[in-house]
Amino acid sequence: MAESIDTWRDLLVNKKTFAHVATLMPDGTPQSTPVWIDYVNGKVLVNSARGRVKDKNLKPGSPVAISITDPDNPYRYVQIRGKVSRITEQGASEHIDKMAKKYLGKDKYPFAKPGEVRVLFEIEPGAVSGTK
Questions:
Q1: Which tens digit of pLDDT belongs to each residue from 81-116?
Q2: Which of 78, 89, 106, 116 maximizes the CB count within 10 A of its CB?
Q3: pTM of the entire predicted model
C-alpha cells in the first residue's frame, strides 16, 4: 500500500461517513453507490442485499474503488483500491444491524424487505491514498 489505511481509520470506523463504492458492470462501465462502511481486521466491509447491482457486479477477485470524505473537513478524504477477498451471507444480517446502530442509532436495520438475504463483501485494500 502506498500509505497506511490507519491514517484514515476514524473515517472507516468512528465517524458516520458514507463511502462511494465503484464496481464494474458486465459491459465494463463503472457503477458507483453510496454505502455504509466498516473496517475489521484489515478488511473494508460493505453490506448489501442479494440481487442488487453491487451483488451482481462483485465476485471474489473483483476490483473495487472506494472514496470517503471526512464529514468534518470536506478537503480530507481517502481513496482505497482493492479486490473482493471474500463474500459471505454468514454474519451479514448481524452486521447490517451493527451498521444501523452506528448510522441510525437503531438496534435493528429498519429497511429490511421480506425475504431479503444480506451479503457481506470483504475488500482487501491494495492502494490507499488521500489527504490527511
A1: 999 999 999 999 999 999 999 999 999 999 999 999
A2: 78
A3: 0.93
